[in-house]
Amino acid sequence: MQRILLSLTCATLGFAGTLAAQGADGSSVLIRAGNLVVAPNEWLSGADARILIRDGKVAGIGASIPAEAARRARQINWEHATVAPGLVAVHDLLDQGADLGESIDAFTPSLVTADAFDPFGEELAGRPRTGITAVALAPTSDNTFGGIASVVQPGTTAMGGQVLPGLGYLKLALVRESLKNDRFPTSRMGAADLIRSAFRDAQRPLGPNGEGLSVVRGALEGGTPIAIHARTHAELTTALDLAAEFEITPILLEVQEIEDKTLERLRGSGVSLALAPLGYGSTEEQLEMPARLGAAGVRFSFLATRGTDLRRAAALAIQHGLDRAKALAAITQIPAEQIGAGDRIGTLRVGRNADFVVMNGDPVDLSSSLIQVWIGGEPVHVSAQHGQDTPEAAR
Amino acid sequence: MDRILTLRRATFAALALGLAASINDASAQEPSIDIYFGRKPAEYKVAITGPDRVESPAYAFRFAKIIPVSTAPIDDGIVLTRNGKIVALGKAGEVAIPQGFELVDMSEHWCVPGLVDLHCHIAAKGFDLNDTVHQTNPEMRTVDLVTMDHEDMRNALAGGVTTVLYIPGSGSNMGGFGTLTKTWGRTPQEALLRFPGCLKIAQAGNPERRSGDLGMTPLGMNAGLRETLLRGQAYYEEWEAFDRGEGPKPELRADLEYLRGLFRHEYPIAVHTQIYQVVLQTIRQLRNELGLWTVIVHGTFDAYRLSEFALESGVPICNGPRQYHFDRGSGWGSGSGMEGAFVGTANGWYAGGMHGFGETQRGVGIDGIGINTDSPVVAQHELTLQCAMAVRLGLPDAVGIRAITLNQARFVGVADRIGSLEVGKDADMGIWSGDPIDPRSHVEMTLVNGNIAYKRDPLKPRF
After folding, report:
1. Do A162 and B1 count as a contact with CB atoms less than 8 A apart?
2. What is the pTM of this model?
3. Nearest-CA residue of chain B relative to A161?
4. Is the predicted ipTM greater than 0.90, yes or no?
């Protein structure tokens, strides 16, 4: 695994340099906003709602921006708008499902979705139109051990998207579609056995063809997050049993139902959730689940099947009792942390990537609309509704 | 991503000026592409090469026109050959013909270097080189199959083709190791130029399977390739450590030994890869991630959209077997007037263009493009017809002849032996009734290692 990750990292370093070089022509940008959402529970407003961007990163926020640096930067005036972190999708297939499922073998942990990433895909290019600036491109749920979900971003130009190196998670699945009639496992019992065996084998000396197990070992040792697709109560229970047995804190994907006893198990366990997207067809129980989890202190995000689901899920959860900051966290900061990228994206603290949305209101209010979306300090989406012009402030 | 995003704008005008100059005097120009060869090793430790010297008579040819490719054409020229090599070359009257050289008067014919094809499956009888049970087959080798005496090879000679890279088929991701061989020799050993000539890798399309191992999708295929290559790299590192006196002598592994030579950069990977997303994966994984010397030996459909990425990565393109692409509107970009056009893929790679990206992509240029037949997909002797099609669809004439001779020799690291007519190089020559890229021309005679390997029978011409 070290070897695989190392080589993947080397492959993508070139890109990271490129990203940095995007704004490296010496120019920096100072944006004045009505509200600056640094993190879901950290809003700056009025004169403090300023963000300085340099070399694709957040170089300063609020009162801490040196006057000289602020004066020399290109000035953009969005004083009637809210600037907030870009949305993050914790699990996305980007309509590439046909390229992301090696269902012939249930145990394929060493597959890496970056290998099949289409940087020119239309789905990817469309994500910023819904405020999404990063997604984890997941393997399908055809396999018990599907592989590594790589973190990708839409492109900063018409040239296509990019992989963020060294991030992502190992995806496991307990859901029905991971069980096949023509190969092991055919049941949840078999899937649990496969996971348990692999977790045990990964802790023993590896044989000559141990690439897959070495990936599992890396995840068990905490180097790579583990996500388990567990939709139903039964699947969730199996996932929690395995998590307790092997002392891991996975992300549980697409959870649709949680009983009170399960909520007690989750409380304080370190396990986090990515909830099935809420919609107008969701049951009352599903709509109220975020507020229950929030009150219990369980960390969760929303996953998206379509880009627009993220803001809609957050708004519906608020409507059903969830705290606004937790709703915003569930589509920005928490998914960023879940995919191992919390120190890079998901908030607008100094040093983070300058990935943000500019909106004419609160991001979790469905009546607000996007004005622009930036990735790496460059605009990637300019709303037709709000015009092409970036309001340059008078010097 | 990678370097695709950091496009340097280049105008067609600048490219065209550079081209005009380089066609007149190619040697005076900076190469249009800095091909990545890795660290060129001082010696082969894994690869083997054929004989340095091959017996051949002393001939003095006189031609109407000589196209050495590496230097300017010569009208009314002389070429002297002996013992497999070119010993003199120049204008008639300026080259003295020594005693003992047999004069061969071809003064109505053109002489060009023997043609080179880096994507060939016919150096043995029958298309018998797809072993598709396993996805990666690093122990397979085509060198065992090469036979000289069969119709396909005689046809190759009758088409002026004198060197081929004989590679496994694309039925698995890693088909095995290819052989660089002449198309004529008294024995396969005499014909051998180098083995391995390359590692053959095929991505997407052909090797997709559902047969019991991974490879239904790019995800599984690329993971399998990586695993096998990384095993080879680990084995290579064990041997390097031993050679430095820092480790025990490794056990010889037949399945990894040739991968060791690959990581020593003794030979390249020839990759069957096509469609821009797949070619992107190829260049990223093999060239940029693993640092391997990589040559694309397919590159069709809309893969030419990546011309600048290939250029920046130092990956040359041997384009074929298809020479055209029905562009569905994105190929040359909006505003170019070429939407929906029938696009020449070799020219797309060579010249670059808009390619739908909104910014001009630079092309790989005169030194970065080759043309192949994928014989028998296109018959081996139709290499010049492939080239004619590429030229018909935009590739400049003078680039065309380089694309089927010197460029391909350079791509695989044997330009010191073949690819152009120069003193000291192998006497591999096609003697044509006229311009070889004109489909009306035919081969009158073909020389391999200074021996007349083919002579056209005017009463029963093969072609």
Report:
1. yes
2. 0.83
3. B1
4. no
pLDDT along chain B (463 residues), means of 10: 34 38 54 96 96 95 98 98 98 96 97 98 87 91 92 95 97 96 96 98 86 82 94 97 97 96 98 93 95 97 92 97 77 51 89 75 96 96 97 94 98 98 98 97 98 95 87
Chain A within 8 Å of B96 (Cβ-Cβ)?
A: no
Burial track B264-299 (b if 16+ CB lie within 10 A, e otherwise): bbbbbbbbbbbbbbbbbbbbbbbbbbbbbbbbbbbb
> Domains of chain B (ranges plus CATH)?
12-32+115-416 (3.20.20.140)
* pLDDT at residue A6 greater than cutoff 70: no
Report the C-alpha gap between B81 and B61 in whole angstroms: 8
Q: Which CATH superfamily is domain A6-86+348-382 in?
A: Urease, subunit C, domain 1 (2.30.40.10)
Pick the residue from chain B with its C-alpha nearest to A137.
B219
Cβ–Cβ contact A4 with B under 8 A: yes
A7–B226 C-beta distance less than 8 A? yes
Domain parsing of chain A, residue ranges: 6-86+348-382, 88-338
Give the CB-side neighbour count of residue B304, counting CA atoms within 13 A: 35
- In this complex, the residue of A111, A119, A162 whose CB is nearest that of residue B219 is A111
**What is the C-alpha to C-alpha distance for residues B335 and B339, in angstroms, rounded to an integer?**
8
Nearest CA in chain A to B277: A118
Task: Looking at the structure, give the CATH architecture of the domain made up of residues A88-338.
Answer: Alpha-Beta Barrel (3.20)
Question: In angstroms, how far is the first alpha carbon of chain B from the final one?
Answer: 48
Which of A18, A102, A120 is facing B2, going by the closest CB pair? A18
Q: Are A22 and B230 an interchain contact pair (Cβ–Cβ within 8 Å)? A: no
The minimum CA-CA distance between A18 and chain B, rounded to whole Å, is 7
